[in-house]
Amino acid sequence: MMTTVVIQTIARVVVPFLQLFGLYIIVHGPVSPGGGFQGGVIVGASMILLALSYDLSSAETKVSHKVRIAMDSTGALLFAGMGLLCLLVGGVFLEYGIIPLPMAPAEVRGLMILLVGVAIGIHIMALAASLFLHLAEEHDT
Amino acid sequence: MSVFLVIVLALCFTALLCTYRLISGPTLPDRIVAAQAITTKTLAILTLLAFMYEQMIFLDISLTYAVLAFLSVLAVARYLERGKVG
């Protein structure tokens, strides 16, 4: 059973702005409150809003199970890869300042914090949507 | 003591009154409406505090809070209507 037209219209209008706001939170992670996890949760919440206002299968068609698994693994792999990159150039895990880029160490740290935030955001936005969709499916018997 | 601080304190007091209904509400819809009222008051308090302290970063937090509150009340409403979410 679908919900009323009011909720569907609100969801259709709000979902793009919600995703844009989540991306803003992720990208502004190094300079403001928030970061990868919080922004990822907001982008995942947009998919939960879609599943709640329409039905589960419409959200499933937007982000299928395969896409979510791929995003989940990609985020975790990027995060671990950036940590291990610091090991390769001779530092400890996630020691960003040691990476040899043509910039000041503080700028390198800021850039790497942004990239790690994006990796965590990709991971969490798939995970938050997956948690809701799978838990709602289980009770669908 | 500015007028905004008085308004914030008054909103906090009314949120406490809603907490009574949240704890002792006889039915589940009573509790949901009380929780939603507290959420709306918290939003107003956050926005006023952002204006008072000139920390516009609080507006991001209140925006996030509003979105997640809308989601939660939608989920509970669907649960009440159908006995399951989704």
Structure description:
The complex is a heterodimer of chains A (141) and B (86). Chain A has five helices and no strands. Chain A has helices spanning 5-27, 36-53, 56-62, 65-88, 105-138. Chain B has one domain. Helix content of chain B is 86%, strand content 0%. Chain B is built from three helices and no strands.
From the spread of the alpha carbons, the general shape of chain B counts as: flat
Oligomer: heterodimer
**Secondary-structure content class of chain B:** mainly alpha
Determine the strand fraction of chain A and express it as a percent band: under 5%
* Unreliably modeled segments of chain A: none
Terminal CA distance of chain B:
48 Å
Please estimate the helix content of chain B: over 70%
What series of H and E elements makes up the topology of chain A?
HHHHH
* Main sheet record of chain A: none
**Overall pLDDT of chain A:** 87
Tally of contiguous helical segments of chain A: 5
Q: In this structure, how is the largest beta sheet of chain B organized?
A: none
Helix-strand string of chain B: HHH
Instruction: Describe the global form of chain A.
Output: elongated
Separation, N- and C-terminal Cα atoms of chain A: 15 Å
How many domains comprise the coordinates of chain A? 1
Biggest interchain interface, per-side counts: A-B, 25 and 16 residues
Number of strands of chain B: 0
